């Protein structure tokens, strides 16, 4: 069940773990790693079956990725860390913080969603069409099977409950783009259900960390330092 994660590490100080989104890898945070490493021990990892981290044989689900993160932190001997997750990475972070609340210092949730209802309908419909098409070909094509698994994370996951959100104890920043594919009221709802959360919108779409890094980084640094 255990896998060996590929990760990038830079800087010293309190650990800050960066979790990328669906179908991506740690390079998504190219505009954050160098900047945040001035203040923190930054660890950006590739999640199971993404980038240079192997797929392994465990279930390909968001909650498995959260358990993977606990195992990863154990192996590099980190008891508690700040965690910044983007998109599916934010969903992993929510599941992790709910199951392992004593292992989180501060939590940053960028563009996360509790379920498929949180995504703008035209975007979610396109994801589900792609998933159904890939599923039809999965038995005959390894490429289609992998695509089905990746898209499946956005069709059958994460289904995070209010009870799980209530278990999150860390101070939390919910941050999203002003034109995000996550519905604005959904981000507002997530922030309202985490007892120690604040909400911030940054100019841009879902990919604000990449496309508007100056504003995004400033908001995250201000939150982590306060």
Give an account of the 3D structure:
The protein has 226 residues and is an alpha/beta fold. It contains nine helices and seven strands, in the order ββαβαβαβαααβαβαα. It has helices at 30-36, 62-75, 88-99, 121-137, 142-152, 162-166, 184-193, 208-211, 213-225; strands at 7-10, 15-19, 41-45, 81-86, 104-110, 171-177, 197-202. A seven-stranded mixed beta sheet has the order 1-3-2-4-5-6-7, with helices on both faces. α2 (62-75) crosses α3 and α4 runs antiparallel to α5 (142-152). The longest helix has 17 residues, at 121-137. The mean pLDDT is 97.
Largest β sheet strand count, sense and barrel closure = 7 strands, mixed
List unreliable stretches of 5+ residues. none
- Report helical residue fraction: 40-55%
Number of strands: 7
Give the neighbour order of strands across the main sheet: 1-3-2-4-5-6-7
Helices and strands, in order, run as EEHEHEHEHHHEHEHH
Strand content: 15-25%
Round the Cα radius of gyration to an integer and report it. Answer: 16 Å
Structural class: alpha/beta
Overall outline: globular
Straight-line N-to-C gap? 38 Å
**Number of DSSP helices?**
9
**Overall residue-averaged pLDDT value:** 97
Give the SSE map.
Blueprint: E1 7-10, E2 15-19, H1 30-36, E3 41-45, H2 62-75, E4 81-86, H3 88-99, E5 104-110, H4 121-137, H5 142-152, H6 162-166, E6 171-177, H7 184-193, E7 197-202, H8 208-211, H9 213-225
Parallel strand pairs: 2-3, 2-4, 4-5, 5-6, 6-7
Antiparallel strand pairs: 1-3
């Amino acid at each position: 069940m255990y896998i060996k994660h590929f990760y990038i590490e830079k800087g010293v100080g309190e650990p800050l773990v960066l979790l990328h989104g669906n179908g991506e890898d740690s390079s998504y945070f190219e505009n954050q790693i160098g900047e945040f490493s001035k203040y923190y021990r930054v660890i950006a990892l590739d999640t199971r079956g993404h980038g240079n981290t192997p797929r392994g044989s465990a279930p390909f689900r968001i909650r498995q990725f959260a358990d993977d993160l606990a195992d990863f932190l154990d192996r590099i001997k980190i008891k508690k860390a700040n965690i910044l997750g983007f998109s599916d990475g934010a969903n992993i972070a929510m599941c992790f913080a709910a199951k392992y609340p004593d292992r989180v210092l501060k939590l940053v949730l960028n563009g996360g969603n509790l379920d498929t209802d949180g995504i703008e309908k035209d975007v979610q419909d396109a994801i589900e069409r792609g998933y159904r098409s890939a599923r039809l070909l999965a038995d005959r094509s390894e490429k289609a099977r992998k695509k089905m698994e990746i898209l499946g994370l956005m069709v059958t996951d994460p289904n995070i409950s209010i009870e799980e959100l209530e278990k999150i104890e860390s101070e939390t920043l919910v941050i999203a783009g002003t034109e995000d594919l996550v519905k604005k009221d959904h981000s507002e709802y997530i922030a309202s259900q985490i007892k120690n959360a604040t909400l911030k919108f940054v100019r841009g779409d879902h990919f604000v960390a990449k496309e508007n890094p100056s504003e995004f980084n400033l908001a995250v640094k201000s939150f982590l330092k306060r």
